[in-house]
Amino acid sequence: MPRTLALCLLLVLVLAACFGTAEAKKSKKAAGSRTERCGTDTDCVTIHVKDSSSQLIIDDLDFSDTKDTAAKIEKRLPEWFGPKRPLVFTRKNGEELERDVPLKDYGLKLGETVFIESGEEL
User: Fold this and answer.
1) Residue 93 phi/psi, 5° resolution?
2) How far apart are CA 43 and CA 28, in angstroms?
3) For the chain, first and last CA: distance in Å?
4) Better pLDDT: 113 or 15
5) Using one digit for the tens of pLDDT, what is the confidence trace for 32-74?
6) pTM as predicted
7) Alpha carbon distance 50, 36 (integer Å)
8) Do 89 and 115 contact (CB within 8 A), yes or no?
9) How far, in Å, CA of 37 to CA of 44, rounded?
C-alpha cells in the first residue's frame, strides 16, 4: 500500500511538472509574439487613419481587462495624430467600436488594425 501511494505521488509530481513546463512555454511564446508585434510584452492595436497612410501602435493594453476602451485609446493618442476629435473607431470588417465598451468584448487580436476617422465629418 505505501508503495502504491508513493507511485501515485510520483505520478502527480511528474504530471504537474509537465503541465507547468507546457504553460511556461505557452506564456513565453505569447510574450515573444507580443514583443514582436507590439514592441512590449503587453497587448496592442495599430491605429490607422482612414484614407491615409498614417498609423501608430498603441501598446500597454490588456484585452482581458474591462478598463481598456476606444475612449481610453483616444485619450492616449497625441493631439497632432489623426483627424479632429471625437473619433470613430472601426475594425477592418466595418464594425464600429463603441466608445465605452471594453475592447475585450470585441475579441480583438494582438496587433489588429483599428481605423479612425473624425466623428464630426460623419
Assistant:
1) -80, 5
2) 14
3) 76
4) 113
5) 888 888 888 899 999 999 999 999 999 999 999 899 999 999 9
6) 0.72
7) 25
8) yes
9) 8
